[in-house]
Description:
The complex is a heterodimer of chains A (112) and B (113). Chain A is an all-beta fold. Chain A contains no helices and eleven strands. Chain B is 0% helix and 51% strand. Chain B has strands at 5-7, 10-14, 19-24, 31-37, 44-49, 55-58, 61-65, 71-76, 85-92, 102-103, 107-112. In chain B, the strands form two sheets. In chain B, strands 2, 4, 5, 9, 10 and 11 form a six-stranded mixed sheet that branches. A five-stranded antiparallel sheet of chain B has the order 1-3-8-7-6, with no helix packed on it. At the A-B interface, β5 and β10 of A face β4, β5 and β9 of B.
Amino acid sequence: NAGVTQTPKFRVLKTGQSMTLLCAQDMNHEYMYWYRQDPGMGLRLIHYSVGEGTTAKGEVPDGYNVSRLKKQNFLLGLESAAPSQTSVYFCASSYSSFQGYTFGSGTRLTVV
Amino acid sequence: GQQLNQSPQSMFIQEGEDVSMNCTSSSIFNTWLWYKQDPGEGPVLLIALYKAGELTSNGRLTAQFGITRKDSFLNISASIPSDVGIYFCAGQQGGGSQGNLIFGKGTKLSVKP
């Protein structure tokens, strides 16, 4: 049982490049989330989804887009990467909004 | 947005010592959760609390949901080297977008053997 799988694990981008981070869960969870983690800032919610075909903005959505075309996948896109987007990105999922989240192991992104 | 104040920011303790950390907010929360993050990994859920005053244990870990619903506490007894990591509190206020977890900034625990 894989849980929440994130790909890639590491990535270096040049400013202005685009990329997509993939999150896949095999727990049939309805809710999925993208967080970024920066030193001293804790975990901040970027976007989330409450079901297939739905997305919503979190606390820090600017510069990111998301899609949830399939229930098990939640994609995070950066259209034009900026150095301020250097961070560790975590995907999480939950069965309902009242349950704790299961996190993936993260993607470390560096924008130079 | 809502903030959770987690303290202390970091702790350096000797193996065998007990550890206490807490999380406070100016707002009421319906659920409190405690996560641990090992280096290079994602946070893992340790304990979930759903009722004011609730006291729940998971091995050497004990967490409490404050009576005011504005705070929560985590205690680790007889610390061991594998307790090293970052501990996050998280709170949830309700359903819909209010159901999204809000995280504290974490307590970094270091244990000296």
